[in-house]
Amino acid sequence: MYLWLKAAHIIFVVSWIASLLVYPRYKLHQLSAEPGGELFDTMQLASARLRRIIMTPSLIAVWVFGIGLLSINPNVFQFKWMWVKLVVVILVTGLHGFYVKTGKAIDHGDATISANKLKLANELPFIALIIIVVMVVVRPF
């Protein structure tokens, strides 16, 4: 059972991180488009579908399967690498919320974020993924 949970956890981590890399790109295209124009509407629809069908369900699945793994093997809490991983996952969850809030502001024409800041924020999921993989595979602590 543990390996099935682990496999599901990894699958949803991959889909969540992938969606967090794509979502801001959709919003960047939307920011550069004329509100009400074809590109604006297309990116708004595509990002809403991505968020509703992949991004948010993957977030939920990552947490559910991750908590399942921790409940089966609570001994991992004694390792520093697990605490670093959990902190990064919490930060990525916050980033997810930031993306959703920012995306809805862009949809309503109330965006306060610049394209450059959104481009920088777009790099964060990849950096988080690197840290998480190193913590879980290399276990440096």
Summarize the structure.
The protein is mainly α. The chain contains 5 helices and no strands. It has helices spanning 2-32, 38-72, 80-107, 115-121, 124-138.
Low-confidence parts lasting 5 or more residues at pLDDT below 50?
none
State the helical fraction.
over 70%
Beta content comes to under 5%
Number of helices: 5
What sequence of helices (H) and strands (E) makes up the elements?
HHHHH
Radius of gyration: 17 Å
Give keywords.
141 residues, 0% strand
Write the layout of secondary structure elements.
Elements: H1 2-32, H2 38-72, H3 80-107, H4 115-121, H5 124-138
Helix pairs in contact: 1-2, 1-3, 1-4, 2-3, 3-5
Protein architecture, described:
The protein contains 5 helices and no strands. The chain has 141 residues and is mainly alpha-helical. The protein is elongated, with a radius of gyration of 17 Å. The model has no long low-confidence stretch (mean pLDDT 96).
